[in-house]
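Entry 14. Two folds queued back to back today. First construct below, sequence then structure tokens.
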Amino acid sequence: MIQAPWIKTAVCADIQVRGRSPALIPKPQDWGKHISVSGFCFLPLASEYVPDLELAAFLAEGPPPIYIGFGSIVPSDPDALTRLIFSVVEKTGQRALVSKGWGGLGADDFGIPEGVFMLGNVPHDWLFEHVSCVVHHGGAGTTAAGIVLGKPTIVVPFFGDQLFWGSMVAKAGAGSPPIPFKQLTADNLAAAILKALEPATVEAAKELGMRLSTEEGREMAAENFHDGLNFDTLRCDLSPERTAVWRVSKTDVRLSAFAAIVLANEGILNFNDLKR
């Protein structure tokens, strides 16, 4: 799957920019002014995507399906996970889009149940517009892509910060509590999906999505990042219109590549004295 948002922290001289939504996770009161929470930063891909005819036909055949996919996660037994997912679909009575992902779900020798469509690479910001809820591993990008579109979310965390994102979504009422992969069964995932499709959860997810959709994460992150830059420390001391890429060892003198080469050619500077 192509992920949508950038979630990382950008750090410059005077400010840290956290690319996550304050609507989902408010800025802690003990964080100073030098830390900015900008909102999720999305890279829109939906406007350029055209679904293949089989996918478009599947979506048109019935009500919005659930989405199940684990992205770049590679399970130790993809066949067992595929069987579990197909069992979940049967238990819920829902149509489903199942992403093959890097784990190779839906092996060719499996019989694909009726009402299941196996997905290849589809942009999340287009795909999630057409589903009723999303089930995934809890990567920050996938989580943001689902909740900004107001979709109830169930996270099956494998490691890292995935449990955190699933817990935050559940705390907001926009999905069921996360189910760690080692505890995953067809029964508990089916129950979580049916819970996520209840009117109260659907409404909470829509409300969260509406709040997130008003944020201008990319613009705010860029603005905050540039506000924190100390441009004087980026300039060459000898040629201020050029960007400094070197510092002379044991001094605060900053030099551009051009200035360093000129000084070295004149025998004034030894390249061994330059530090990044």
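Second construct, same run, same settings:
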Amino acid sequence: MTQTERLARATAHLPAPVAVVDLDAFDANAADLRRRARGVPVRVASKSVRVRSLVGRALDAGFQGVMAFSLAEALWLVQEGVRDVLVGYPTVDRDALARLAADVRARREVTLMVDDAAQLALLDSALSSLSSTGTPAGTGALPDVAVCLDVDASLRLDAGPVHVHLGTRRSPLRTPDDVAALARRVEALPGARLRGLMFYEAQVAGLPDTNPAVRLVKRLSVAELYGRRSAVVEAVRAAVGRGVELVNSGGTGSLETSSAGPTVTEVTAGSGLFVPGLFDGYRSFDPRPSAFFGLDVARVPAPGWATAFGGGYVASGPAGRSRLPRVATPGWSLTGTEGAGEVMTPLRRRRGAPPLAVGDRVWLRHAKAGELMERFDVVHLVRGDAIVESVPTYRGEGRTFG
């Protein structure tokens, strides 16, 4: 029995659209991610999961800590008992900063991401307001707010007057001097302490190995970052008079190279738990998809065609075919003229594929990982050909964070 046949049998009693996670694949992926990290702790990226039960499952499988995508999310996760939450992106959410400043437990468990003095000023404002208005919530001594600096990990190539930037425009911090200067400002802020540094090499972790040019960029990026990351860590040590406890790097597509980097204390992964469509082209691991959504065929407009209800779940990023869902039911594909429909999704049968009839279930995979879960209140966890549990997504718990 194929994977999609198992999913169809498990969910036959449920109306579509329906979201499922194959636990056999999910658990195997979790083990494989840890194996690829070669003993370096792996932090789970919550944005690529967005199901609290499955974030917990990854932690139970040996992942250490969570990388949240917003401070409000981090505060909620800590409230629900999650420990060691690193916020992966800077925040200008003044309300969330005020709640962080006022909550002793959150101050112990949350690490704030900063890459600009303006963000640090917002934290300063929250801490100053707290000191003049009252006592923090919770019990125990008031710990400093932990801060991590996000350092640009892109590759820059210079050839005379030509300057090429390969990777995301993620952070204004790049050179050891840049980072050391902001590190000193963190340490000088009453109520804050520098905990760590983050280097996300998107041009390595986030690009499939589609051609020799991409693979060359990845090799050059890894070599350049090994040296610069060590120089940044040393510059920060000299600037603040001590080392940092956390140096985070990497993602699902770069665990081997990131974990091998000098000074790296942990790596992050999340998409590799679900293995969405955009990860099909990687050579660093064997894709083992675990997250799917099922649609039901509502009509058959002509031989070789079928139309499913729902399915317009297009991923973020540059508009194009790569952001469309992948049809997982063998022999069927989206059409070039309509793609994934807002209400109805037309499908085209390839030669030799079995036909679909009205009422049949067709399976698709989102191009990205956690974004699928923003479309559903509940995700059904399947083991073999049976549902073992149905759990709420973030949306199902009434939580949306952007």
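Quick look at the second one. The mean pLDDT is 93. The two ends are 38 Å apart (CA to CA).
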